[in-house]
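Allow me, if you will, to draw on your knowledge of protein folds for a short while. Thank you for your consideration; the sequence and its C-alpha cells are set out here:
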Amino acid sequence: MVAGTGGHVRTMLNWRSAAVLLAVLLVAGCGKEKPAAVAPPAAEVGVMTVALRDVPLVYDFVGQTESSQQVEIRARVNGFLDKRVYTEGAVVKAGQTLFLMDRKPFEATLQAAEAELAQQQARLTTARADLKRVRPLAERNALSQRDLDDAVGKEQAAAAAVEGARANVISARLNLGYTTITSPVAGLSSFAKRQPGSYIDATNSLLTYVARLDPMWVNFSLSENEVLRIRTERESGAIKYPDQDKFDVVIVLADGTEFPNHGRIAFADASFNAETGTYLVRAEVANPEGVLRPGQFVRVKVHGATRTNAIAVPQDAIIQSQRGQTVWVIGPDNKAQQRVVDVGEWTGNNWVVRSGLKPGERVAVSGTLRLAPGAPVKAVEARPGAAPAAASGAAAAPAAPASGAAAAAGGKS
C-alpha cells in the first residue's frame, strides 16, 4: 500500500511542474509586443495634367496604286505581225517602236493609189485643156451651150476624181505607217499578247499595255459610316480642315518605309459603290523614279485636319485590360484609380480620348506597371521628352488628315 501511494504522488508532482512551466512561458510571451507592419513605399510615376487642345489628326487607310494612264496598244490595220522590238516588262519611252507588221502589202497598196492619183491628174489636165478651147468658141457661138456645159462637167468630174485618188493615197500612206506600232506614252510595258507570225485583225488586235508611272494614282476607300461621322463632326466644328481642303498625303510602302514624294487628293467619287458600301478617293503622287508600280498595296496617311478642343494622352498611358481600354488616374490624395476610357483616333504618339477624362485630371504616363487600385503614388510631372505630343498639344507626326473624307464628307470648306 505504501509503495503504490508513493508512485501516485510522484505522477501528480510531474503534472503540476509541467503546468507551472507552461504558465510561465505564456506570461513571458504576452509581455512582448508584435512588430508593426511596414507600409510599402509609394510608387513613383510620371503624370500629365489633362487639358483641352487642338490635336492634329492622321487618318490611316489601305490603298492600291494605279497607273494614271494605262493605254491599250492595238494594231490599227489587218495583217501579219512581223516582229516584237521591245523588251517585255521594260519601261518604254513615248514614241518608242513596240511592234512591226509586214509592210509589203501596204506598200503595194500605196503604190497603186499613187498611180491612180497620177492617172486622174492626167485626165484633169486633159479636161481643163478641152474646157479652155470650148469656152471661147461658145462665146462666139461657134459651139452650142451644150458643148460648153459638157466640157465644164468633164473638168469638174476629173477634179473630183483627183481628190478621191489623193484621199486614197493618204489612206494608204496612213495604213503603211500603222504597220510600225509605237507607244503613245512613256511607261511600263506589259507582256506581248500576240507573237510574231500571228495574223492580226479586229478580233485580236490587242497586242499589249503600257502603263504610265508618273504621276501615280493611289486609290483608297471610306465606309459610309466614316463619311457620315466626319461630315457631322465637321459641321459641328469638332474637326477643322485645312484651307481649300489641301490635304497632305503620305504613302507608306509594304516594308514600312515612307515614299519620299507626298501627294494630294485629286478625286473623290460623287457616289457610293453599291457593292462595297464605300466611297472611292484618289490621291495623286509624283513618281519620277518609277518606284511605285501599278497594283501595289500601300498605306495611305492623310494629314491636314485638326480635332478642336480635344483631350489627348500619350500612347503609353492607354492600357488594354479585360474591361477595355483604361488609364490610371491619380487623384488629389495621390492614390491611383483605374478608369475605362473611350479612345478615338491615334495621332502621332497620342491617343485622342473621346470620353472618360476631364480637363485638370492627372493621368499616369509612365511607371504604370507598379500601380494598383488605391495604392499611394509619388506623382512626378512627366518630362516633355517622355510625352512630347501630349505635353505640347501637337502630335509628333505631321499634320492630320481627313483624307478624301474631306471631299467626301464635307463638301466645300
About this structure: Residues 49-67+215-410 form a domain with the Elongation Factor Tu (Ef-tu); domain 3 fold (CATH 2.40.30.170).
